[in-house]
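Hey team,

Filing this mostly as a record. A colleague (T.K.) asked me to run one chain through the structure pipeline before their review meeting, and I want the input and output archived in the tracker in case anyone asks later how it was produced. No errors, nothing strange. Just documentation.

Input sequence:
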Amino acid sequence: MATNPMAQFEVYRIGPEIKLGSIDISFTNSSLFMIISSLAILLIFNLGSKKNSLLPTKIQLLAELSYSFVSKMISDTAGSKAKPYFSFIFSLFMFVLFCNMFGMMPYSFTVTSHIIVTFFLAFFVFVGVTVIGFMKHGLGYLKLFVPSGVPALLLPLIIIIEVISYLSRPISLSVRLFANMLAGHTMMKVFGGFVISLGIVGGWLPLSFSVALTGLEFLVAFLQAYVFAILTCIYLNDALNLHH
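Output structure:
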């Protein structure tokens, strides 16, 4: 009998229960894979930066390519003014990417398949970009909600739409990542269940779908980290350059 495809998303406590008043702050499997992802990033870039040889090792090459990739992404979308925020965007991209990739491993846990995690990341980006916008332009940042060339009659309606669109950024940013990871992993589990249920004779078709879906999910895991980071750059560009 196939297992419940949603069981892989269950958050469970590891170790003793810890409470801060009425809030449960116990260590969970989600916390564990966040730490594993963070440590893996630190380890790779620590090893990759130890020897800057002309003939780079695979780890050094991975670190340099990641650095160049994010640097170019920031330059292309937010310009030179966004360079001081490279560390934040780079850390965000690598964290989401590693959480996605670790979630592809058997018996692992996909941190980004939970809306609370992706919403917290997106909300942090939203608040940070808004603060930067007001620090850079003061109350002039509110011009972002007043597109140029709009007839005065339509202006009140357009402003309302722009404000709603702006406030919905953390929701759209978080739901996009969460929904893609949840749906992809659920489908992989469903097809895996079909393979087990149908056995060797009838399971070859769902097995082939499962293999293809796994390859596609690796691509989605990377693309979703990229989309999350590039949208952050676009929001940062609005805050720094006030283009609308």
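Quick notes for T.K.: The helical segments are 29-48, 58-78, 86-102, 115-137, 155-167, 169-202, 204-241. The two ends are 55 Å apart (CA to CA).
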